[in-house]
Amino acid sequence: MDTAVDPMNSESSFPGSPQEFLASWSASRGNLRRFLEDRALPPIDEQSQRAAGEASAAAAVEETFGIELDAFSSGVDSVSGSIQAAGGIHISIPDPDIPQDIGAAAFFDVDNTLIQGSSMVVFALGLARKRYFRFSEVVPIAWKQLKFRFTGSENAGDVAIGRNQALEFIKGKDVADLVELCEEIVDSSMIEKAWPGTRELAQLHLAAGHQVWLVSATPVQLAQILARRFGFTGALGTVAEVEDGKFTGRLVGDILHGPGKKHAVAALAAIEQLDLARCTAYSDSINDIPMLSMVGTAVAINPDKKLSQEAARRGWQVRDYRSLRRAVRAFGLPALATAAFSLGSWRMFHRGQPEQPDQRPS
């Protein structure tokens, strides 16, 4: 009687932990058959082989990240697409004089966490100025971003519509042209919008030997240029499929929004052997709770109202670099209102006074 092989308990065929299993499985880009063959499982028929591999991967994903295999596979696709776009997994080489703390990393959202305001609006307006597309086509993107900033939330319909519009805009366009425009827009309009406090946090992580990653719904090319300019390890972004140097109009993996960020970070952690309990995530938005809640340390940067409340409930750190908000917290709204009223009254009073003659001796 044949004995069934349990892949998770086969010391000769599989790594000894779910994390090691996922690192190898992720590196195979989800090709379960190739992965199993490389691991020299006893010969079994293709259907059984696939079922065994998927069962093992699903169990490891659930135990390690608490997500389903399909979600993890989508994250692998997003990470793989980001690696392909960058030409390698790491964008910047760490300082050789700094000992690397293997397994530790920091994940930063972009909009209003690293960059003031919406990178997509700045990006879209920059492309329109370069006549990459018309200003009228930017309006829906800008409206959705303004709606998000005022309401503090995005619904799935807005995200899906925005994704489809963006993919349609770039369909058939040359990737090299877009990258060149991205570099111009980043250098002329985005670097100066970076929050100094957030940049300082990122530099502290790098100085401690941690990896530093941007994780953003913004196009991966834009996110990776930002990461390169700031000397970060790498960037995960929304990946548009490329064939023969042109965009096809199709998406690779998830749009990195909400749960999509968690799926991509899970895949990256598996590939890079990161210990998420020793990692830190930073964001301004309640939509990033899935990513924030999967790491050992979560920090709310310039948080929206809902994230601020959630951070208080969970005991997460909060850092607010917005001057008005910081002033309100430091002095209180009544004191600021009184000061503003007094200043305004003083200006009105002096504006209404007749100009005094020059009393200086001639």
Describe the oligomeric state of these chains in a short phrase.
single chain
CATH architecture of the domain at 84-117 and 193-323: 3-Layer(aba) Sandwich
User: How are the strands ordered across the major sheet?
Assistant: 4-3-2-1-5-6-7
Q: Element order, helices and strands?
A: HHHHEHHHHHEHEEHEHEHEHH
Q: What is the global morphology?
A: globular
What is the C-level CATH assignment of the domain at 84-117 and 193-323?
Answer: Alpha Beta
Overview of the structural elements:
The chain has 362 residues and is an alpha/beta fold. The protein has helices spanning 18-27, 32-38, 46-65, 69-86, 119-129, 135-151, 156-170, 175-190, 196-207, 220-230, 259-272, 289-292, 305-314, 323-331, 333-351, and strands at residues 105-108, 211-219, 234-243, 246-252, 280-283, 297-301, 317-319. The longest helix is centred in the N-terminal third of the chain and has 20 residues, at 46-65. Residues 1-21 are annotated as: Disordered. It comes from Corynebacterium alimapuense. This is HAD-IB family hydrolase. GO terms for molecular function: hydrolase activity; metal ion binding.
Compose a concise summary of this entry.
With 362 residues, this protein is α/β, with parallel strands linked by helices. It is built from 15 helices and seven strands.
Keywords, please?
disordered C terminus; alpha/beta; metal-binding; HAD_hydro_SerB1; globular; 15 helices; 7-stranded mixed β-sheet; metal ion binding; hydrolase; single chain; HAD-like_SerB
